[in-house]
Amino acid sequence: LYSNKIGAEGATALANALANNESLQTLHFYGNKIGDEGATALANALANNESLQTLSLYNNRIGDEGATALANALIKNESLRTLDIGHEGATALANALASNESLQTLDLQYNNIGHEGATALANALVKNESLRTLK
Prior knowledge:
This protein has a single domain (6-134), classed as Ribonuclease Inhibitor (Leucine-rich repeat, LRR (right-handed beta-alpha superhelix), Alpha-Beta Horseshoe). It is 45% helix and 10% strand. The chain has 5 helices and 5 strands; from the N terminus they run H-E-H-E-H-E-H-E-H-E. It has helices at 7-20, 35-46, 64-76, 90-97, 114-127, and strands at 26-28, 54-56, 82-84, 105-107, 133-134. It has a 5-stranded parallel β-sheet, with no helix packed on it. Helix 1 runs parallel beside helix 2 (35-46) and helix 4 runs parallel beside helix 5 (114-127). The model has no long low-confidence stretch (mean pLDDT 86). One of its GO terms (biological process) is nucleocytoplasmic transport.
């Protein structure tokens, strides 16, 4: 679903479907301008979804609120293996990584996470035993 101008409303509709879906494993959602509202809806779906393994949300204008919601969902979700969220909310994600036991790949390529985000991620890696790839 790359670059389809889906927006928050479309992301919310997809999140509602994802909450009840038991087969979808990969969702590439690059460049759809879903913002915090769409990211939060997807996070709520992730908290209950047991099939999704890859979620790519790069370039969606997700701020701290949406990234925090996604990070909180990671604490509950045990199926997600790969998350590409972009630069927003690296600190919130780092906090979730400290207790997440399923995420294996976190892709933060080409993003401006800065020294604070990198420091938070470094501290989380000390506690996280599932992450195998950090881009």
